[in-house]
Amino acid sequence: MRIPVGLLVMLAGIPIASAADLEAGKAKAATVCAACHGALGVSVSDTIPNLAGQKARYIELQLNALKDGSRKNALMNAIAAQLSTEDIANLAAHFSAQQGAMAGAKSDFLPNVAKTNVPFPENYKSTFTKYHTINFPDTRQVRYYYANDTALQAAKAGKSLPDGSILFAEVYAAKLDADKKPVTGSDGFFVAGDLLFYTAMGREAGWGKDIPDMLRNEDWNYAVFTTAKERRAGVNQAECLACHKPLDKVSYTFTLKQLADAGKTK
Q1: pLDDT of residue 7
Q2: Which helix (H) or strand (E) holds 157?
């Protein structure tokens, strides 16, 4: 059978590793992948795919595409970018050697990634500064962002956010019109309806010490709280860590510029 020239060119650009090391793949999976995909390839949630029993070459192709950016996924692009060709081959071999997961099976969380040290900031309304608002059209939400004075003053001075910083968000469902579209106020933001939950990120010395280097955001931890101000069950902090990982130059936050601007006007 004649292989098309285009396919040969495509395959030529894909890194091929030497014989895979199953033990190295197992170790890498246990320290990094387990947080989301499970150490044996059985994922921790319904939104994350199982890798157990998947074909090794398929896993290699996907990880290489995520590594070079040709496949877009903010969370996995950040993780794959840190993997070597050997890491990818080893992980692919490890997961392909596992028994395929049964329908509905879920892995336990990796304990030191699933837990968080961030407390609910009880007095945030009176002690924090509201510094930003963002519409989320896909989820029909609007979020209000707050920061404590430690974070605000550091951003104002153009410094990295230090230990003691807390960034906090109220997440609201947008009010909808008769056509089920978000109602927009005169300021351009969605009109807030019901409060859905809260999110927070904070840092203190040592909070990141037990998190694998590939996921660690210095000493930042992340949390989601219910409207009753309790930590929401089933939240996997690894997803937050991986999403924020590429933001090391801006204190691991998407809103540092807005925070700095708010500090200058206060």
Answers
A1: 43
A2: none
